[in-house]
Amino acid sequence: MLTLLIIEQVLNGLQFGVMLFLMAAGLTLIFGVMGLINLAHGSLYMVGAFAAAWVAGATGSFLLALIAALAAAAAAGALVEVLVIRRLYKAAHLDQVLATFALILIFSEGTRWIFGSFPLFLDVPSYLSGPITLPGGIAYPLYRLVLIGIGIAVALGLWWLTARTRLGIQIRAGENDREMIAALGVDISRLYTLVFALGAALAGLAGALVGAIQSVQVGMGEPVLILAFVVIVIGGIGSIRGAFVGAMLVGLTDTLGGVFLPELFKLFMESGAATQTGSSLASMSVYILMSIVLIWRPSGLFGVRA
Amino acid sequence: MASKTRLGCQNREKTMKNVLLATAAAAVMAAPALADIKVGMITTLSGGGAGLGVDVRDGFMLAIQQSGRDDIEVVIEDDQRKPDIAVQLADKMVQSEKVDVLTGIIWSNLAMAVVPSVTAQGKFYLSPNAGPSPLAGKGCHENYFNVAWQNDNLHEAAGSYANTAGYSNSFIMAPNYPAGTDALTGYKRMFEGEVANEVYTKLGQTDYAAEIAQIRASGADSVYFFLPGGMGISFLKQYAGSGVDLPVVGPAFSFDQGILQAVGDAALGVVNTSQWNKDIDNPTNAAFVESFQAAYGRLPSLYASQGFDTANLLISAVEAADVSDAGAFRDALRAADFDSTRGDFAFGSNHHPVQTIYAREVIKEGDVFTNKIIGKALENHSDAYAGECKM
Amino acid sequence: MIREGVINWAILLGLVALPLWAVFADEIFTITLTTRVVILALAAVGLNIALGIGGMVSFGHAAFFGLGGYAMGILAYHAQTYAALDFGIVEIEGTKSMPVIWLVATAISALAAWLIGLLSLRTTGVYFIMITLAFGQMFYYFAISWGAYGGEDGLSIYVRNGFPGLNTLVPIQFFGLCFVALCVALILQWRLRGSSFGLTLNAARQTPERVETVGLNPMKLKLLAFVISGAITGLAGALFADLNRFVSPAMFSWQLSGELIILIIIGGVGRLMGPVIGAMIFVALEHWLGGLTDFWHVYLGAILLFIVLFSRGGVIGFLTGKEGPHV
Amino acid sequence: MSEVILATQGLQKSFGALKATDDVSIDLRPGEIHAIIGPNGAGKSTLIAQICGALASDTGRVELLDRDVTALNTEQRARAGLGRTFQISALAMEDSVEDNVRLGAIGAMGSPWNVFRPVSRSADVVARANDALERVGLTGARETRCADLSHGQRRQLEVAVALTLEPKAFVMDEPMAGLGADGSKTMTGFLDGLRDEAPILLVEHDMDAVFALADRISVLVYGKIIATGTVSDIRASDAVRTAYLGENA
């Protein structure tokens, strides 16, 4: 029974991890290529979720909803890039932080203006709902398995994109040397818009996918944003591989910590107090993980040493 | 600037007319002019928790408007769900607006930050929602009235309902913060069965896969959870998809009108406890539900009913006494001589309601998810802290 | 273009004149609001020493703000309940005396800043931003689940703490105290900037390798700056708690760390009076816009965006026509 | 006085497969200017970084005044008596010329910890800084922001900062780089007189200056010292000709 529980929790951790990866991948790409700290990434996640909820409500199709989420987030991303972000590439990190924080305010309250203060409805489609039985007799929600699958597929796709395509070469060149790729005749501002929109689309996809099993509401992006930052910092900024490893670490730490730390404390503490202490420690666990990684490797696991 | 308003914000035109009518009537009858009373409402109108504050405000303003009184001035401010902003606004209400009565706070932590200080300064505070235990027990105050409930009430009712439903082994869960601890304590206070496991989740957590796996492994025969706002939506959707089919019980917060539509089918059939529902059979309630829908184009929520009742309590006191005579005004509030949407309404010794709490079930009416009362979970229930209150 | 000195005195004068006017006009709340400005400015002055001079973008200064707040909360709570603080070996009585509370608040914040700085300064750039955030979040979640002192509900202190010879319950007197604290911090920052420490710290931000080649350790310089910075922000936290007569985990939240950074950027990074004018503008916006519409965040966002895009160097940079230090 | 002020023995540093420096042993004697020359990418900057402690060596040791300083970091080596100038000016660009030299003076006195007393009231720091400024001829520009200096003035300031340290040995990375003919001449004259105060290890591309100044020259090619000797030795060396000037002997 305990083994089954552990396997199930590990699956949960992986599922959480791959969703964090979708967020973190865009964030790390944008930082790696453009050197931009984008706090508004969480807002694009929210845009994706709201677009999906709205389209699903209007058409009843989950697939259309996902497409809408990708499109809406990519469009919002491209728009913001052209209107605001473009002016920030040369600015200090601090200015970027303030500007993208301002964007969060505008996105969040703007969304509330349009959709109202109450959460929206978005559900898992019937063909993906319910549990399936895995080998070993674990009943596990089909939808979550699908999420893991999509996450891994996106990770592979991104790997293919950066390692094997022309765009990928440009992206990697952009990370190393902006003047160089400009000199090679690549339209750098178009490349930046493209990368930003790609990152935004991934965030929007994550928002829509997660929105189906969570609450689609204003402000849903910020907690995920903070965790996504934790992920890319653990992995090393600019590294897609690092983002993937970081996401898995954070997903597993958060999930397993939340379940097993209270149980651990119960071994030598009174039950109620153990639950409390364990839970407090669990909620800090991700941050403890991050600080340990950074103290050990100040540029993250796969980061380039400064 | 404060939005100084005597009217609901949504339907300014309509209420303008009402005020004109009311003034005209007053002139004709030449009624003796009562002293103006100023009410400060601090509530959450922006950010994630805005839905609750908007409902309280709308319910409150609806009652003020229906009363036709133009001698009650309401100053509304947004606390952004931040305690320090709430304190600042309370200072403003007291120092600058010089209000007589405060109301509106949704969240317990904000109430704890504001209420003790404003009541100490001689102002009245009428709580339309938050009812933290310290304010019901040792920290109670003669100028503090709670029109909604003491925080533990709905949880106690859930425990009591679980007994009648024949559950004997519950898995219980709440976020790791004081209201969460209170919730599980409240449930355990009334529940006579075993507790299979007691889990505290992270505040603001959105994924409950891990907890659901624990539920599956726990061997419990029922699940009790207190996860307000988006947390509850997430949990219910994920629980419905998990294949675990233990019956779920919760307090009304996760099944209220505002968020029920976002939960959807996942909530159908779940039993939850509430002191109010739109099908409570009395004329005040029927009129409230109808007029709220007419005014705002949506079904009223629990919070709206609390806002509405709070305003009516206030109006009843204004009618009976002058606010400058604090003693008389307090007695008038204590008498609670108003028509509540809940039927009969009375305060206990600690100025918290003594009321019936219902078990209700989530149903679908046409396209709209809503609740139906299926029985009484607790009757004429007070709270566990009244004994500690020395007024 | 106006000279920075002139602007600085004008800001300081305005900050005193407003509450004095309010006393005569009986606008008590204006005093409260100005006190809030002063305290937030004090916290940001602290951060500005680390951020503006030392180049350490700390996204976790709420940790010190909160520690200062809880130092006040815990000491006053124990004085309020007449229960001594039990450390196992020693018992300490609570206190309602501001000087004692301030001392404890600054000492604890300084200690925490030393520890956090020691660990965080191994990293630079975005990593430093994020590791300081991580420490802030640890305090935040700890405070939320620490039931003994109210957890998320926080702690209410019913009566403001006392200061010998003053009646702190009178708003203008409490304002005066906070204002003096702010002035002391400003004088400290001003003197620090011109001292040998300030000179070397400022160089350590711009060119750490140069500082090493003249035989100094930039890390140690930054660490001391971080400790001073944390201590000042901690003091501000204690005052903030006294202003509200309330502490809660919100004081530890990353939003608060972000707000402090924003105050500084609005005013002008590294400028002596940057945090002060930044706090004035921010509180004023929050106050006035909040009354206009439920959706005032949209306008706040637009204004902030405008400031970043069109006024590099913040308000003071805009007024003096000079860019500030680069961080 | 020791016969050798600064010496390296078998210094080596690899970046992956590339050996940036390979078994480099050089020394610097009292009163001399020892120039290191070599084509781009020969490992000169790596060598300087290793000598000054900015880069840890894979093997080998660095001695200053007969003391093994290999395990010391940059700041400790500076305190032990190494005065370095940078190829690309590492100055506090936002600060005034005066502040930059005062930084050196504060470092030399080891007194950065006063947080309250204005630097201008530390007579010894001010005197030392002024002295250095005067010697390089920057007194008139003391109030100027570093960012507003001309390129030549920055080179002068680099040297001035090193002067404040009163080091036992100077390590200078291309002090002539980017100077015009006049600037180069002035600097050459200045360095010529400086050797009596402390010997100079000079990395330089400007061959006229090198031939005018150097007592000895070492040639670094692909990380290895291929020749060390007087100016005429080097001029005459076939190995240098082949490797460095790219001529076929």
Summarize the structure in short.
Chain C is mostly helical. Chain C has 13 helices and 4 strands. Chain C has a two-stranded antiparallel sheet with strand order 1-2.
Structure, explained:
The complex is a heterotetramer of chains A (306), B (391), C (327) and D (249). Chain A has 306 residues and is mostly helical. Chain A contains eleven helices and two strands. A two-stranded antiparallel sheet of chain A has the order 1-2. Chain A is globular. Chain B is an alpha/beta fold and 391 residues long. Chain B folds into two domains: 3-151 and 279-354, Rossmann fold; 153-277 and 356-388, Response regulator (Rossmann fold). Chain B has 13 helices and 14 strands. In chain B, the strands form two sheets. In chain B, strands 7, 8, 9, 10, 11, 12, 13 and 14 form an eight-stranded mixed sheet that branches. In chain B, strands 1-3-2-4-5-6 form a six-stranded mixed sheet, sandwiched between helices. Chain B is globular, with a radius of gyration of 21 Å. Residues 1-35 of chain B have low confidence and may be disordered. Chain C has 327 residues and is mainly α. Chain C has one domain. Chain C is globular and about 55 Å long. The mean pLDDT of chain C is 91.
Beta-strand content of chain D: 15-25%
Share of residues in helices of chain D: 25-40%
Question: Uncertain spans of chain D, ≥5 residues at pLDDT below 50?
Answer: none
What is the overall pLDDT average of chain C?
A: 91
With helices defined by DSSP (H or I, 4 residues minimum), what is the helix count of chain C? 13
- How many DSSP E strands of chain D? 11
Choose one word for the global shape of chain D. globular
Going across the major beta sheet of chain D, what is the strand order?
Answer: 7-8-9-4-10-11
Quickly name the level 1 CATH class of the largest domain in chain D.
Alpha Beta
Give the key terms:
heterotetramer; A: 306 residues; mainly alpha; ABC transporter involved in vitamin B12 uptake, BtuC; two-stranded antiparallel sheet; 11 helices; 75% helix; globular; B: 391 residues; alpha/beta; Rossmann fold; 2 domains; eight-stranded mixed β-sheet; six-stranded mixed β-sheet; 14 strands; 42% helix; disordered N terminus
